[in-house]
Amino acid sequence: MVASRIPVAILGATGAVGQRFVQLLWNHPWFEITGLAASDRSTGQPYRDACNWVIPGDPPPELGDMIVSPIEPSLTARIVFSALPAAVASEAEPAFARRGYTVCSNASTYRCAPDVPLIIPELNADHLALIDVQRRQRSWSGMIVTSPNCTTTGIAIPLKALDTAFGVRKVFVTSMQAISGAGYPGIPSLDILDNVVPYVGGEEEKIEKELTLLLGQMAAGQRRPAPFVVSAHANRVPVLDGHTVCMSLGFTDPPSVEDAMAALSGFSGPDIVKQLPSAPELPIVLRTEVDRPQPRRDRDAQGGMAVTVGRIRTCPLLDLRLVSVVHNTLRGAASGAILNAELLIAAGYIR
Amino acid sequence: MVASRIPVAILGATGAVGQRFVQLLWNHPWFEITGLAASDRSTGQPYRDACNWVIPGDPPPELGDMIVSPIEPSLTARIVFSALPAAVASEAEPAFARRGYTVCSNASTYRCAPDVPLIIPELNADHLALIDVQRRQRSWSGMIVTSPNCTTTGIAIPLKALDTAFGVRKVFVTSMQAISGAGYPGIPSLDILDNVVPYVGGEEEKIEKELTLLLGQMAAGQRRPAPFVVSAHANRVPVLDGHTVCMSLGFTDPPSVEDAMAALSGFSGPDIVKQLPSAPELPIVLRTEVDRPQPRRDRDAQGGMAVTVGRIRTCPLLDLRLVSVVHNTLRGAASGAILNAELLIAAGYIR
Amino acid sequence: MVASRIPVAILGATGAVGQRFVQLLWNHPWFEITGLAASDRSTGQPYRDACNWVIPGDPPPELGDMIVSPIEPSLTARIVFSALPAAVASEAEPAFARRGYTVCSNASTYRCAPDVPLIIPELNADHLALIDVQRRQRSWSGMIVTSPNCTTTGIAIPLKALDTAFGVRKVFVTSMQAISGAGYPGIPSLDILDNVVPYVGGEEEKIEKELTLLLGQMAAGQRRPAPFVVSAHANRVPVLDGHTVCMSLGFTDPPSVEDAMAALSGFSGPDIVKQLPSAPELPIVLRTEVDRPQPRRDRDAQGGMAVTVGRIRTCPLLDLRLVSVVHNTLRGAASGAILNAELLIAAGYIR
Amino acid sequence: MVASRIPVAILGATGAVGQRFVQLLWNHPWFEITGLAASDRSTGQPYRDACNWVIPGDPPPELGDMIVSPIEPSLTARIVFSALPAAVASEAEPAFARRGYTVCSNASTYRCAPDVPLIIPELNADHLALIDVQRRQRSWSGMIVTSPNCTTTGIAIPLKALDTAFGVRKVFVTSMQAISGAGYPGIPSLDILDNVVPYVGGEEEKIEKELTLLLGQMAAGQRRPAPFVVSAHANRVPVLDGHTVCMSLGFTDPPSVEDAMAALSGFSGPDIVKQLPSAPELPIVLRTEVDRPQPRRDRDAQGGMAVTVGRIRTCPLLDLRLVSVVHNTLRGAASGAILNAELLIAAGYIR
Prior knowledge:
The structure is a homotetramer. By secondary structure, chain A is of the alpha/beta class. The first copy, chain A, is 30% helix and 22% strand. Chain A has a 6-stranded mixed sheet. In chain A, α1 packs across α12 and α6 runs parallel beside α8.
């Protein structure tokens, strides 16, 4: 599908999510890293010196000498992956889109803008139709396409499988989120060792809003949010990677536990997605042990691209209870944005 | 109130909860430890040798020489505090009650029996009226009085404060429970370090049932369970002590956040309870910081006898969301059972 | 000994060690907190607002309204406790001493100056004689008296007990240090969860140097460093409080294990120290269990003022091996500096 | 080298190390798992049911139906990998060797027997000559070949590199060992969370003895232990995998830091070892960052087969200090034994 590799750059390449982008895009079959951009503090230095590598493994030695660029739309790349802080993304991402770049963003800034697709390819590839609206309204030659919050992702995928079959009406979720979700340096160890912090700034609002967008329907070129109501409790726990979510769900057409399990384990994205290099064989892995999923034991399922669900059981108040685990920095962040870029290529938005 | 100290014994004195009983009853103003009973493995040995002390601090040196007794109703004590496993309690506790002992039990076995009081003194001291029923039906000269599951306790206390004022109808709870709740050796470190286990055997059922009993009403000598519905998700997290619970609550008469806060911070037990040696000045501590309560920072509030609540806010699905923390081995276990014994004395059930 | 309480101030009152000073000096029998000083960021605010309380418990409510002062020698206090960063202490501490304040410092800046006492009262109260030298040389009406590095403290106390009896010649130490030793925010959780960091900046040098000063001898108004050699390996481990140190020791007159145990358990400071309010009954607690001391279980021995030692056994290379645990923010920091201030009063240096 | 795969069995296949063997031998190019043996409790059940999988990933689905055999020398295998407890190995391993099996053992029982090779292929492949002695003395048609203790392994590999070049004379080591080294259930979480346990039963003696055997010289068909002296301090820390060791070393011919680094980074095994399927490209990875190696970040170097060393610096007491990290269940256990089996094939001991 791709003759020569497409030049891509990473915005915010020295941060924790930026490092994940570097790790995943290095040797990617379709993409070639041609730019690493970061804030002024790092600009002009070799990536090796500018970057305090905090994720597992080592930075690709071949990229060590690449000089870090400023975050300006003069990079020699077609796609830019944005791991920028929300405040920085606010100006930078439109500047890149205006100049013709495709911005695949992991930042929260434009996720809820009505003309910006918020995409998980297996769920709502058809929302890419918003790109035309976006370009028309904003007169951009490029575009911004976003991927959702990490916790949202771990909820949205099983929710879609069940919504399609049974019609979700009410969603009660409690998250237990890994520390890597806060970046680096992130959470001080004095705050989280032998502790739980029952608060993650802005997270509950993101979960409640983004879920309705992701599962919304396109109609007449517009995205209509899904009509269910979400209540979220977000917590930080002493886990390195992997967000765990407890859910209680109410349906229009309540399924049995068996039917719910069948819908979850049978879920797959559209054909166009299955062939993408970063797509997992199974977007949802169903476990039947009584005490799974667990973040340490399930976060790496399908290379960190599957959401693992388990403990499907009835709920005294709504219809079903279940638990999901998602790798927050892979499917929930960098890998998710890369999968979006792959989809844009397969769907012909990037040529 | 108490001329000379009342002789008490501990059943299951060598386990983790048993050790807490020893620590708390040592130098108690009303009680004097005269017996330490445990399983055959320990019987006949000095407590010092039989017991692998796993809780903070050291065992009281003066008790080190006390010989561990078998779990048989021939101890020279008026009250026995039971930290027995449920299966052992099943036969042992009635045997003691039959022989005239007052059994203050932390075991789950008899908590839900219709003629056994399940007591948190500040909430339902009037349920002690079930003792008369119990003695009459079972022809016991002694009695069994139980204290609830540790997680239940952390929910029940704030729930009562709100139920009295606004009428609770629906209760969603997700717990994040400390490892000490599983006793010793309990949870293998390989299962919980860098992990969450979204399952605690039997816990969800206990929470759902016990809450309706604790907040039930006495009528015509019977306990009528409270009419609300509870849905519980129980999780184990890498925290030493202190269970954290996220709650969403629906009410008959939904309060504002301010009114709920006033009801919580103004809550206190009846006068008879306030004077008890183990009663906290405040059964509920309300925190207003955005990220509290936290188990490490709040479990020891009021000597581990207060439930700390915070993050009172509205809920998109029900009416209110909040978070509570309770010290699971103090208020939620040993101290709770001791407070019950103190209440029995103050209320004249033990003379 | 003290008619009315002596006014004291805390420099760096909003940091983690500063908070410990506040907690310990509040209701101190001899001292009264009259000033809380911190960097410009906090100056002018009520302590309640300026301080993000990170240690256990809550700040004393009565101090919440005290306005934070700048770090300038115009505080109405006789003694200032310094929890300043080394770089800030460099200018601030002499400025206070020049103006007549007694500076009891926990900062490393002046610990190794030849005319500044580095004191652990039970070990080397006689080193206070350096104060006269200091005042004469520097023309100060006040003084600086320092307390050692937290890890050094946990080594020095047992080392002194053994040195007095058997003459220490070689000291090999490996520390496993708690995260609270790095202050707040300190160590990012992403660096230490499920990990060991075999490096603590500057720590090995401090241990190697300070030990020889603490155990040095006064002669002709000068402090002669002890003649032994120290090799230190410093590590950070995922423990909240309590530094653990493994030691191998060589002696001039090698003791048996029994004699070493007797020297350790029989150790006490001079009479002038025993009566001080913060002095522990036993400076050294000897444990004989095969797996003690442990930081979580032993850090609070004697209110965090004792060093706990155990595993005394022979060493194939030197003479003895042992393990010690010290509470790094109590005996190893704030409490240590307060004990020094108490000694200064008892010894007549402050009237 | 190997036409068809050699049938192998695992003794103790359901335990934590046994599971590692299963994981590593599954799809091994030279070996085919034909037997899974375990204690009576598991015998006769499908492996899927007998085994509570506790290591990362899932058991190979194809092995789930294999029926667990008793630990008796009637398995259809040429090589048996032993992950047996020492007490069980005591009788079982000789029984297998007597019947012609090659026993590649990870148990400690026979490691120090004078006629049993204790092997790390890169270090002392020539010690395999003891097999002839063993067979002659014991009249066995099979053999026992052992791999060392996990902590020993992480010390021995860098020690060998330095011993060859500079002659090791004195070895001080302090280990900080991962919880997986104790198997499953192993260390209770209540013992190790927020804690260090400065004791690992038998570990110090194993380290001190095994190092002298591993680095010993063959002479006249006998193994002469290396003449250096070792002093070990063993500790357990809250880390999942990866043992960290701080070392101080004294040499006959003390090297500069640079020469030591060159010897470490240039180390490799003999040619016969380099070609083995499980041999790492580099047995030693040298890191130059000031705070490496770290167990979480370095345990997986070279697929868990490299020992990572760093912080090479002078020692005030001996000559050099350094830190090493080894993956305790890979190079330090299962992978080490498998590498030994590969060596036996390459060296012609198994045909």
